Amino acid sequence: MDNNDVVIIGNTSDSPFAIDIAHYFGQVVDISDIIALKDFQNTEFCPRFISDENDLEHVGDYLKDKKVVIASTSCSEGRNAMAMRNMIIARAAKDNGAKEVILLEPDLFYSCQDRGPREGHSFFNDERSPKDRKKFDGQPFTALLNAQLLKLSGVDRVFTVHNHSASTQALFNDQLSGKFHNLVPHDLFAHYLINSDIVDSSKIVLCAPDKGAAPFLDLVKAELHFNNPRILKMDKSRSGERSISMEPSNASEIRIEDVKDKDVVVFDDMVRTGTTIVECCKQIKEFGARKIIFCVTHFHSSPESREKLSSPYVDEIVTTNTIPAILNRDTQGRLRKKITVLKLEKWIVRNIQQVVGVDDDSNLDNDPYSVDMSSKNPRWRKEMGRSWNKNFQD
User: Fold this and answer.
1) How far apart are CA 246 and CA 116, in angstroms?
2) What phi, psi does 200 have (nearest 5°)?
3) Three-class SS of residue 320?
4) What is the structure's pLDDT at 1?
């Protein structure tokens, strides 16, 4: 199979993420010339794949033998609206002959709502106490609903990035007969740690702020080829919506005292408020760490997270553009002085090509990602001279 058998579209007009995915797939035709994303006067969404208006021989077969990829990211439209648009676009593709419909959603919608209030409202059907189920009392089991609706609408396969919920992963795999792909960017973060000057390789320590981050940490460590970095694990307990306590875990390879004069890299899959990370970094800094870098896949930028992560306990932040708003300098706010964004489009395309059997990677260079960094970051000038593609802005 070659790239011509794959059609890349977005779910909003002029989505930069979808446009980049299409570019790295080698799609010459603009997305806006493939699908019209229109609304009726009553506001109902009605997408239309664009075909030759004089062709009466292939009505309903325009997409025959094609694999259609819907590149979906959260944006100003809102996640609820985006979810509905994805389903309608998927149905439009299937109703016009698509061989396979693939949803590419780096930050998977509704995936955190991976349990419900009743017995059996978990993919694993494990026994849950009334106290645990009470946290979901009155709520829907939305992750399951989302998977069922996507399948019903015509989605055959889903790609996402670093989904943290084993329950969500399992139920999507079940609904889609194994065609769920959770791409974990441990290799990207490791590549950046190795090839940038963000850490001193002789002084590096890797840290998991809670048990959930530990498997990710192990994957990153396996990719690092210098100095066999040691791992510090923390145990977290939550005493309120914005209140936590934290202490070093007995499962750690080192004591927290051993971080003195070290460069500590803290890893997590997502950040929403920053409470956990700041508390973790505070304790590490108080034990004499030389530098603390926070690496996170999904960055939900909000006034609260920006305020907390501006803390002096966090020296630098490395994240990705799974939520593209992070590329906006206004969204970064004061964090632009210490934030680096690794743009994932090339890495995602390479992974999709491997899964769907596309052999043509001529539009991809050897660099696995592009670097986006504000010139306000003190490391900006050094980064300008590196080999990977860059998108540096003020």
Assistant:
1) 28
2) -90, 115
3) strand
4) 63
